[in-house]
Structures are given as C-alpha cells and as structure tokens.
C-alpha cells in the first residue's frame, strides 16, 4: 500500500514507474505531450538538432505559432518559418498553421490534446492551464523542450502541495479570474514557489471549465509549478467528444499531505483588479479611486474563451466604447472566433466600436496589436502586469476579468460591471 | 569552479519581462538580446556590465515567463553568476540547463551592495564579499542536478542518456 498522495504525486508516481513519490524527490517521468510556440520552439529546434535526428513521437508534440503571428516583422516570420519547416520535416501531427490555430492554451484543451492524469510540459509558462482538466502540466524552457522532444521524458522535483479549499458559489459578474487574483493577492507572487496548488472543496463543482482553465492558467503567477483541479462531472462533460483516447484520472487520497490549506468562500468574492506592476497587488474594483484608461484588452490564454466573450458582449450590447478608449477583443482560437460570430458577439463588439482580432498573444506580452505608449493605462484580461509588459516601460496594466474590462471600456475608467446602466 | 566579480544589486521579484523584454524576442540570438538585458529596470546595465560580474537580488528572481532568453541574455552579457534570496522555478531550471550558475542564499537580508566584489568557490561551497569580509555558505546542488551541471548542461546530459539507451538495444 503506497503512502497517501496528492493528485500531482500520484500522476508523477505513475509516470515515473514508481509506487509512490514524496515532495523533494527528483524523478524522471515520461511525457504525454510537449508544447512549443514561435518564440520558444526555434531555439529548442536548434538544440534538438544537436541531440537527435528524430522526435520521440510525432503525435505527442504540439507546435503553435501564436505569439508574433500573423507575423509582425521579418525576424518573427523567420522564426515561424523555422518552426513550420521543422513540423513538416518531422511530420508533426499537431502543428497549427495561422488560420487553423489559436492561442496555445485555449487551443490544446479545445482540441482534446490534454486529458486527466497526463504529464505535459510546454515551453511557455502558462502551460499550467491544463491542470484544469486534472493533468499535471508545467512550463519549462527551450532546452527542456528540445531534450523532451528527443527522449519523451524529463526530470522533475516532486513539489509539495498547497490545498486551496473552495466553498460557496460565485455571485453574478464574479468569475474564475477574480478567484485566482484573490488567491494571488492573498499568498503573493511567490506564495506557491516550487509548489503545487491543488484545488478542492464543494465550490469546485460550481465552477465552469472556463473558470477552471483561467484559474489554473495563473497558478504560475503565484510562483506555482502547477495548479490542478479534481476530475468531476464538469470535466467529463467538457472532455466528451474532444478526447477519444483512453486516459486515467487520479484523485487525491483523503489523507494526502499538504504544506498548507487556504480556504476561499466564493460567495463572498467581488470583482477585483490587480494594480501595476505585480499580479499580487489585488484590490476590490469598488475600492479604487476613479482611474481613467486608454485601452482595454479582452482575450489571451487566460480569458479568451467563448464564456469570456459572452460576459463582455452582455455588457457591450447596445452600448458604446468610451471615446477615450481603444477596446481590442481577441478570441482565443478560430473555433471561439466562429462561435462568437454565430452567437452575434462579434457584431455586438463592432457596433460598440471595438476591434476584433484574429487569435494572437500579441498585446499580452507587448508583442503587437495593442502596444501602450508612455504614460498610457490599460485594463486587460491577460495574466501579467509587470513593468513594461504591454509596451512602454512607463505604461500601466491593470488585470481584471472580462466583466470589469468591458465595463471599464464603456465608462472610460476602471469600473465594476454593475456601474454600467 | 571559482570566480570573482563586481556586484549589480536588485530587489525582489525581478521578472523575466525586465530581464529581457518580449519586444526583443523576435530573435533567439543571445548576443543581440544581451544588449537589452535589464534595460527596463536599469538602462545602464547592458552598456556597463563586465565579463565576470555578478547579479545579487532579493526573493523570487526570474518570476514570470518560461523564456530561456532571460538566463541566456544574462550569460551572454557576461554575468558569471546570479545570487538571490530565492529564484522562480522555471528560471532556476533554465539556468541550470544552460549552465548559468545560481546561488540561492535563502530569505533574509543579504548584506551585499552594488559595486561590492564577490568571490565564489562553487567546489568548496563558499562565497565572500571582499568589501565587508563577510562569508556565505553556498548550498550544494542536489546530486542529479550536479550531474547535469557536470555534463555541461542538459543537452550533453541528454546525449549521454540517448547513447546509453542505444547501447542497451
């Protein structure tokens, strides 16, 4: 009988061929998926070519050009070309060309490429998103990606886990983004450093898959190695029709050991924003002084799913974006885009005076499509508000969920959704 | 491994976006990126950093992105080693993988100032601030991570793993 284990420990034990693992232990684990994008894959490809002539499994590598695509300049076009040619040479099954792509962390779950109990690494820090479906998923660098593409395995230090106990039910206009910002505000940007955030409690069942994806996505902003949710009826409904291969969900043992338990009563949460320049600077939106803004971004791997756009459309319908604001809306994938067209959201956005873009990470990381000038201020549903993140080093990013972002677009200042009359 | 260098001092939560801003990531040429290293918090750094200099910072150094360009740009700029109270985990892993030495001293005030000279002996596991005479113990890396470091980084280590696998066939 193995010792009681957390979800992450159980997944690691299964992938390392061990009966049990303990926090702090160094293991080698086999990988179910290795991900890279147009920024991180090109250097990984250079290193891969020094190591091996063939990839470990052409079906278990995903390559997504999403950061600087459609390419913003010649240099980024060259990087995307490197990745495209590599994908062709090795006959990579899951290469997603512009026009069939999406922001990687919106696209992969949507396409059924991640499943419960799996181990996934990606050369992108927000790879932790896939914890939402009960997988172990974490971000790594390009050298790790290169070696993993050659061997199909990598090394890990087994993390200790923090249990995040959710109780109650979210009030209207409060979403997954508010939960994760509230948690980061509570424990700090290094509050879970080298650790796993394992979500639990009766409140989990009330959260949509979109809420869970948003929460797991930002586990890294608390310094966590991964964030992980239990696999329940909501998960199974989401996976049905997407994942056709066999998978093995795991559940935490009741006696599993946690370094700490944090409890959040969802019923008591209100919409929040994270002030510049760290995601931990979290305040209730109603506590802010009137703060005029220049730009709103709704989208990104954190909040670019159809439910996010639905919230924004509900607020923007029949209203106008404030004259001083540029509102940029970015569906997270081609499928999300098409659904937003069919549901009439795109028309709502355009009539409101917003811009709707093809899927891209662009503005989130200060790449393209919405760079801020000196002294400008944005409300964004993205995941980081570090200094200079979205443009000029003297610009400011306020992080929020789609409801606050849309309300702010209408009122021209940071605003809660119920302020929009 | 022994080295000595001038200290650049920074605070807590130095993130990967200030180590190397994403606007420059349309290249993976680390020499080109080194010219922009740290510029959003310290515009003087790239122009003045000398081969062998050492960065000393507070907690959670390297938080944020998985971009290996961050430790890569520091290494290419000539930084011999980063000393911090703690490191964000992806940065830590990336630095080990590419062979940029890191020293994690643990939380608490580190009495090292900008411009001080630090000598580090990784084999003996000691460091000394020549400006104050203060000595520090450098925590040893776990055995497996030492193996990666001794192989000269993860690429060489992986070559050995693959060669051993071929040998077994």
Automatic annotation (TrEMBL), chain A:
Key words, A-Z: 4Fe-4S, Amino-acid biosynthesis, Branched-chain amino acid biosynthesis, Iron, Iron-sulfur, Leucine biosynthesis, Lyase, Metal-binding
Biological process according to GO = L-leucine biosynthetic process
Per the entry, the cofactor note is: Binds 1 [4Fe-4S] cluster per subunit.
Q: Reaction(s) catalyzed by this protein?
A: (2R,3S)-3-isopropylmalate = (2S)-2-isopropylmalate
Q: Which residues form the Aconitase/3-isopropylmalate dehydratase large subunit alpha/beta/alpha domain?
A: 9-412
Which pathway does this polypeptide act in?
Amino-acid biosynthesis; L-leucine biosynthesis; L-leucine from 3-methyl-2-oxobutanoate: step 2/4
Required co-factor?
[4Fe-4S] cluster
Q: Which Pfam families match?
A: Aconitase
What EC number(s) has UniProt assigned to this enzyme? 4.2.1.33
- Give the highest taxon in the source lineage: Bacteria
The positions annotated for binding [4Fe-4S] cluster are 301, 361, 364
- Which region is the signal sequence? none
What's a single GO MF annotation on this record? metal ion binding
Task: Tell me the function of this protein.
Answer: Catalyzes the isomerization between 2-isopropylmalate and 3-isopropylmalate, via the formation of 2-isopropylmaleate.
Give the record's subunit note.
Heterodimer of LeuC and LeuD.
Q: Which family does it belong to?
A: Belongs to the aconitase/IPM isomerase family. LeuC type 2 subfamily.
This chain belongs to the protein called 3-isopropylmalate dehydratase large subunit
List the gene name: dmdA
Automatic annotation (TrEMBL), chain B:
Give the taxonomic lineage as stored in the record.
Bacteria, Bacillati, Bacillota, Negativicutes, Selenomonadales
Subunit architecture: Heterodimer of LeuC and LeuD.
**Alphabetized GO MF terms:** 3-isopropylmalate dehydratase activity
GO biological process per UniProt: L-leucine biosynthetic process
Enzyme Commission number(s) from the entry = 4.2.1.33
Q: Which keywords are on file for this protein? A: Amino-acid biosynthesis, Branched-chain amino acid biosynthesis, Leucine biosynthesis, Lyase
The entry's protein name is 3-isopropylmalate dehydratase small subunit
State the family it belongs to. Answer: Belongs to the LeuD family. LeuD type 2 subfamily.
Q: What does this protein do?
A: Catalyzes the isomerization between 2-isopropylmalate and 3-isopropylmalate, via the formation of 2-isopropylmaleate.
């Amino acid at each position: 009988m193995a010792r009681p284990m957390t979800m992450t420990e159980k997944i690691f034990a299964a992938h390392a061929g061990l009966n049990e693992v303990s926090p702090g232990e160094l293991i080698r684990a086999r990988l179910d998926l290795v991900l890279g994008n147009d920024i991180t894959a090109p250097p990984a490809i250079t290193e891969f070519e020094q190591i091996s002539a063939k990839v470990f499994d052409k079906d278990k590598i995903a390559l997504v050009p999403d950061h600087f695509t459609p390419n913003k300049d010649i240099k980024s076009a060259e990087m995307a070309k490197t990745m495209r040619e590599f994908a062709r040479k090795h006959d990579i099954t899951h290469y997603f060309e512009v026009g069939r792509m999406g922001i990687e962390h919106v696209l992969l779950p949507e396409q059924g490429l991640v499943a419960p109990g799996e181990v996934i690494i990606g050369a992108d820090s927000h790879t932790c998103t896939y914890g939402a479906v009960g997988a172990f998923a974490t971000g790594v660098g390009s050298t790790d990606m290169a070696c993993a593409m050659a061997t199909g395995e990598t090394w890990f230090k087994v993390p200790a886990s923090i249990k995040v106990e959710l109780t109650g039910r979210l009030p209207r206009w409060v979403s997954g983004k508010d939960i994760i910002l509230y948690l980061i505000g509570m424990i700090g940007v290094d509050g879970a450093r080298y650790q796993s955030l394992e979500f639990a409690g009766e409140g989990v069942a009330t959260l949509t898959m979109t809420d869970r994806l948003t929460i797991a996505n930002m586990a890294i902003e608390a310094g966590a190695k991964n964030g992980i949710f239990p696999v329940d009826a909501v998960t199974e409904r989401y996976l049905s029709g997407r994942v056709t291969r066999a998978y093995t969900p795991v559940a935490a043992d009741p006696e599993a050991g946690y370094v700490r338990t944090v409890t959040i009563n969802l019923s008591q949460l209100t919409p929040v924003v994270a002030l510049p320049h760290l995601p931990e600077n979290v305040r209730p939106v109603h506590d802010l002084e009137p703060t005029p803004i220049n730009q709103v971004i709704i989208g990104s791997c954190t909040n670019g799913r159809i439910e996010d756009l639905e919230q924004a459309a509900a607020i923007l319908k029949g209203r106008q974006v404030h004259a001083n604001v540029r509102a940029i809306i970015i569906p997270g994938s081609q499928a999300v885009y098409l659904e937003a067209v069919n549901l009439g959201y795109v028309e709502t956005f355009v009539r409101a005076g917003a811009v709707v873009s093809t899927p891209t990470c662009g503005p989130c990381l200060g790449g393209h499509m919405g760079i801020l000038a000196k002294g400008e201020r944005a409300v964004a549903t993205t995941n980081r508000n570090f200094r200079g993140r979205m443009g000029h080093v003297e610009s400011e990013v306020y992080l929020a969920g789609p409801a606050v972002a849309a309300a702010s677009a209408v009122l021209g200042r940071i605003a809660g959704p119920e302020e929009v009359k | 491994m022994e080295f000595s260098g001038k200290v650049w001092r920074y605070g807590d939560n130095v993130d990967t976006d200030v180590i190397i801003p994403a606007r420059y990531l349309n290249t993976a040429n680390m020499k080109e990126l080194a010219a922009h290293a740290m510029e959003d918090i310290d515009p003087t750094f790239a122009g003045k950093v000398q081969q062998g200099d050492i960065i000393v910072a507070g907690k959670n150094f390297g938080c944020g992105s998985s971009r290996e360009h961050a430790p890569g740009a520091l290494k290419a700029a000539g930084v011999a080693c980063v000393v911090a109270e703690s490191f964000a985990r992806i940065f830590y892993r990336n630095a080990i993988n590419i062979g940029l030495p890191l020293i994690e001293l643990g939380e608490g005030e580190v009495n090292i100032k900008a411009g001080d000279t630090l000598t580090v002996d990784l084999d003996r596991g000691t460091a000394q601030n020549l400006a104050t005479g203060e000595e520090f113990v450098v925590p040893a890396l776990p055995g497996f991570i030492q193996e990666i470091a001794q192989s000269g980084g993860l690429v060489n280590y992986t070559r050995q793993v693959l060669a051993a696998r071929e040998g077994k066939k």
